Amino acid sequence: MKVGEPERLIIDGKRLDGRAFDELRPIKIEAGVLKRADGSAYLEWGGNKVMAACYGPREVHPRHLARPDSAILRCIYNMAAFSVSDRKRPGPDRRSVEISKVTREALEHVVFTHLFPRTAIDVFIEILQANAGTRCSGITAASVALADAGIPMADLVPACAAGKVGGEIVLDLNDVEDNYGEADLPVAITPKKGEVTLLQMDGNFTREEFEKAFKLAIKGCKKVHKIQKEALRKKYGGT
Ligand code: ADP
What we know:
This protein is α+β, with helices and mostly antiparallel strands.
């Protein structure tokens, strides 16, 4: 057993933070919080605190990156030095490069990039406080920031993870569950078409467990989608 590892992660059918297996941590999203960005969103999801800002469509620098027939979408995921318990060394690392890439792939599928040739749409995701599930938090917030910027999109992109903890398939792992659980499966979807734009897996599932976790993660994404829509409705009204 590792230092700090709890003896059990599931006690009397409940998780250590008291949640049911299919229960999300509390989520709050506010759209349009930054004056100088074209679009922005602030999200709190359990112990995660995330700011997403979006700029564009705007001129591309360096110019050779511009595409004649579409906009390019660029995403940067960054964890603040103070976002985790041990200070994180500032600047990009392998993990942030990977998360930036999968975030771009999760989002670019819905953005109508062909409407804005020779431009760039830039998305910055700053993790101010981390408590597992920051890539899902980042994608969820960034998608609201893109909508807040008025960038035409086919859909919002909610994201949510499911995993295996103490032998049980559970939704939305917190940091203790992520550190000491058996598996984690972050998923992002486009709710209208039901496409999956992010699917990663850390740890091991049997085939049956994978299917159960995948379905649970999609259920989670649908709940997250409602919260995204509420945030935009609160700012802009409408149905
Ligand atoms: P995600 O945040 O998407 O779940 P990971 O599985 O890579 O991505 O990370 C899980 C959690 O581990 C993070 O949310 C964060 O709480 C913690 N973590 C990640 N990187 C660091 C780091 N450099 N130092 C301390 N904790 C970290």
